[in-house]
Amino acid sequence: MGLFEGLEGFKLTFGKLFDERVTGDYKGGRFDDEKRDKPVRMHGRHVLNRYEDGMEKCIGCELCAGVCPANCIYVRGADNPIEDPVSPGERYGFVYEINYLRCIHCDLCVEACPTQAITESKMFEFSFTNRQDAIYTKDELVVGDDGQPKHLPWEDWRPGEDENTSAWMRATSPSGAAEYVGKVAWSGELGYGIRAPEAGQTADLAETHGDIASLDQHSDGEIAAAADAAGGHH
Fold first, then answer.
1. pTM (2 decimals)?
2. Percent of the chain at pLDDT above 90?
3. Where are the alpha helices (DSSP H) in 48-95?
4. Which range has the worst mean pLDDT, 54-63, 111-120, 189-198?
């Protein structure tokens, strides 16, 4: 009886060799064009941003590491070199690591960051071959001189995955207060300038300190004036 059942199982397995394939090549295959569009508010791989003048936004405060529920972020700050400062503040992120074997992409680090230094892109498809590759260092996380995220060999980046990082309008204020909807309350980014609010959100030019109006309703001059009033990062 055991032999008969074994032969039946082998027959079933062998027959599947001739059935129509239900899988395809990961890249360039028939399923590559069938990937669903990713939501604007999707959380993926992090990036560490720079100001438009090239200075790093991270000040090494470690708030992101403190709020992380998965304990996947390790940060150590250091005093800025007087001759060649890395960030506009007194300190900068000297060590910054994220362990993607632990990260749950909850976005709490983004919400906690006081300088909008860390955001999440929509790229989430990794293909690690060893554990060390999964632990991203600061060199891998900080955007390049053009402001674009660095594309590593084991990442599958698609067009537009660096846009609307971490659903920008979602983090306009602590706890997402309704009065901040549609208002940009952060400084510009290298390579992107001042990001526009999400589609469908509107707001008038705010008169309160630190609020910058929606780019789709006001001229560059008004935006620049609002940015100067907010103080930027100086």
1. 0.68
2. 35
3. 63-67
4. 189-198
The 10s digit of each residue's pLDDT in 88-113 is 889 999 999 999 999 999 888 988 88
**59 & 135 share domain:** yes
Are 193 and 53 a contacting pair, CB within 8 Å? no
Does residue 177 share a domain with residue 129?
no
- Residue 150: pLDDT above 90? yes
Indicate the length of the chain as a whole number: 234
Residue ranges of the alpha helices (H) in 72-176?
A: 108-112, 138-141
Cα distance between residue 124 and residue 105, in whole Å: 10
The backbone torsions φ and ψ at residue 11, rounded to the nearest 5 degrees and listed phi first, read -65, -40
Domain housing 115? 46-141
Residue 114's SS3 state is coil
Q: Are 114 and 143 in contact (CB under 8 A)?
A: no
According to the model, what pLDDT value does residue 225 have? 44
Strand locations in the chain (E) = 46-48, 73-79, 91-99, 118-120, 135-136
How many structural domains compose the chain?
2
Question: Do the domain assignments include residue 148?
Answer: no
Q: Are residues 112 and 191 in the same domain?
A: no
Residue 10 belongs to some domain of the structure? no
Percent of the chain past pLDDT 70, that is, above it, reads 66
178 belongs to a structural domain: yes
